[in-house]
Amino acid sequence: MDGWLGVLIMLVLGVGFAAVMIGLSVLLGPKNPTPEKLAPYECGMPAVGDARERHSVKFYLVAMIFLLFDIEIAFLYPWAVALRDLGWPGLMQIVTFFMILSVGYLYVWRKGALDWAPAARARNALRRGPRKAA
Amino acid sequence: MPDTLIFYALSGLAILASALVIGQRNPMYSVMLLIASFGALAGLYIQLDAPFVAVAQIVIYAGAIMVLFLFVVMLLNAPQEDAAEWDRTHPLRQGGVGRFGAMLALLLVVQLAWALMRANDVSDAVSSRGDVATVSSVREVGRGLFTDYMFAFEATSILILVAMVGAVVLARQERGQ
Amino acid sequence: MFNSSFDAVVPMLCVTLAALAAMGAEAFRARDEKMPIGGLGIIGLVGAGVACALLWNRNTSSFGVIVADNFGLFVTMVLVIVGILTIMFSSQVLEVDNLPRGEYYALLLFGIAGMMMMATANDLLVVFISLEILSLAVYVLTGIRRDDPRSTEAAFKYFLLGAFSSAFFLYGIAFTYGLTGSTRLDRIGAFLAAQSMSDNPLILVALGLLLVGFAFKISAVPFHMWTPDAYEGAPAIVTGFMSTGVKAAAFAAFARVFLSAFEPFSQQWVPVIWVLAAATMILGTVVGVAQSNLKRMLAYSSIAHGGYLLVGLVAANQIGKAAILFYLLAYAITNLAAFGVIAMLASSNDENEELRDYKGLWHTHPALAAMMTVCLLSLGGLPPTVGFVGKWYIFSAAVSSGYYGLAVIGMLTSVVSVFFYLRVVVMMYMSEREGPEPVRPRIARMGMVALTLSVILIFYLGILPTRVLDYAAESIATIF
């Protein structure tokens, strides 16, 4: 547990710095609010509508795929730490693992699950326009 | 006693954040508080000498799974949800369900109390085998994962693939419709 | 680490490669191109079958966690048969329901690979991962008709309860590992036999949690609640697949874990499984009688058949263990063929799965009605079908171990179950249909071939079972 003291100090410094900065600006800053000043900042334009819009289902799919690829990191981390003990057999294993998963990556890519505008893509296909190569 | 101090600070944070998760009316805040709770738990894992679990907790739970939660909350447009009509008549709002949940919670508390009372027995049973201290560092986890458990590790890739295909099949919008 | 041979994983490797190829083919096909992905799957499965035949009696193991003993290979062969029949039945269903072909076959093959892994796993962790692989595949297949709310609901229920039971199972593994220091079944067995842990409540907790996990997957009462809904909502052929394949794989792992690793605790778990078996047989049969939907009726029937298999596990003598294997084969072929008939008669907008839809089927589809009759009689356990031999074998195992109570319950429930199977038969032949004829799709030739093969197998194994019985007896000699 010795090596974690640095992490703790870092954490305390980070949180402390943010807290001090916000605290100082609350304490020292001049306050004369107007409705315009209190409105959310939208590049200088008046805000339109509610920020809490319903998001597209596509976000869900992206989050799902992100989660699945994120799990690989949990395997990569101990592999990287134990790399010297494992040697070539370890490398072979992680390569096999990634080869199998890359089939999934290809699949997801080709199915258009990562495309952000499938409607546009379908229109292109109808017009027999140039198709994006995978 | 800095260890004890840190332990109480972290567990206090975890309990407080978890309690607030249930108390929020806006599910977005609940998700954020859950991340705080997970962070505190990760600290506790480090204190338990399980750094790999701590890192996995941050990377997978606080990272990926909470992103998924956030997206689901945004997808359902949940902030306005508790004003909806159906919410009042939702089956989960009925008394019986609440009582059942309370009963389960009580059961958990009793069970935990029982386990803690008998903690000596438990630790004896577990520590009676010789290899308690072997699996702790990330390096040991890595060594174990890629030698003894290498087949399980490779099989996990198939599991992830199945999940990927399943997600695409069930969540993809039909093309051209 | 690398001195271990790869032989034992070859069967599941064949199927996995076929599944990966199916995914690749689906990813790279042009928009309206139809690819023979089903044929690809059959090639992979045949490869797995050949590998099984070559590995027979060789007792190899790979990486220490996968053992290709005859027990595992027998179940793998059953799974190969289930897979091939399912794919043959599926071609028509995919056409009629317009399901995503590539994904369907990929999930099916991944599921079979997971089942094979589960049947040959010698490590609790591998059992868990394979359980998850096959479960995820089956959850998605259950809900693959996305426009059908019943299908989605079935998948959702199945997923929630399944995830819950997986958690139980994993918790049980954690306890076992904590107490014994290993996840390998042989080491757990050796540890438990060497040390007297019977006074330790934690080992019983572990045992109970593992039991719940398995009981859920084989839908034993009282963990059967998801079964009727999931079986009814899923496409008929998927129901056939999961009621046979999942059950075969889960039973293989169940038998292996409890009869090898937890053998020293049989005093503790045998009475519990006795009660489970009795409750499962009784409830599956009694509630099955009251059903008006054929799929639901067969769901309860499959629950009852799980009960018969549990009887074999309780008896656990030489005959009992071999009887489990033979019964798994008998049940898999018969049940899959019955669901195949239902699947082929379903049209895209009307599933035609109520009992009254089968009135007068003999007059419109004589061949299908005849083959359905054979399947139902075999499920009911009437000679000269394979169902009779399987049941007879199971009950004689129970009697020879002295479990007369279970044998009597089993026979009584079998008699009652014949009633509801025969009811369908009578409807198909005797009754004239009132009202308009339901819309039925054109029956595909591939499905008929599969059905004919199943019926031939049902009769062959029913009349000349000795050879396969010998294989089953050989299988159990290797491990227990």
Output the structural class of chain B.
mainly alpha
Cα shape of chain B: globular
N-to-C order of helices and strands of chain B:
HHHHHHHH
- Structural class determined from secondary elements of chain A: mainly alpha
Q: Based on the structure given, which CATH architecture of chain A is correct?
A: Up-down Bundle
CATH superfamily placement of the domain at 1-81 in chain B: NADH-ubiquinone/plastoquinone oxidoreductase chain 6, subunit NuoJ
Between the first and last Cα atoms of chain A, what is the distance in angstroms?
47 Å
Q: Please summarize the sheet with the most strands of chain A.
A: none
Regions with little confidence, pLDDT below 50 for 5+ residues of chain A: 128-134
Radius of gyration of chain B: 21 Å
Tell me the CATH superfamily of chain A. Answer: NADH:ubiquinone/plastoquinone oxidoreductase, chain 3
The topology string of helices and strands of chain A comes to HHHHH
Helix content of chain A: 55-70%
What is the architecture of the domain at 1-81 in chain B at the second tier of CATH?
Up-down Bundle
Explained architecture:
The complex is a heterotrimer of chains A (134), B (177) and C (480). Chain A is mostly helical and 134 residues long. Chain A has one domain: Methane Monooxygenase Hydroxylase, Chain G, domain 1. Chain A has helices at residues 4-28, 35-38, 57-81, 83-110, 118-126. The longest helix of chain A is centred in the last third of the chain and has 28 residues, at 83-110. Mean pLDDT of chain A is 79; it is low at 128-134. The longest helix of chain B has 26 residues, at 51-76. In chain B, 77% of the residues lie in helices and 0% in strands. Chain B is globular. Chain B is an all-alpha fold and 177 residues long. Chain B is built from eight helices and no strands. In chain C, strand 1 and strand 2 form a beta hairpin. Chain C has helices at residues 10-28, 37-55, 70-97, 101-120, 124-142, 149-180, 185-194, 201-217, 226-233, 236-261, 266-289, 294-315, 318-345, 361-364, 366-380, 386-400, 404-429, 445-463, 466-479, and strands spanning 60-62, 66-68. In chain C, strands 1-2 form a two-stranded antiparallel ribbon. The chains are: A mainly alpha (134), B mainly alpha (177), C mainly alpha (480). At the A-B interface, helix 3 and helix 4 of A face helix 3, helix 7 and helix 8 of B.
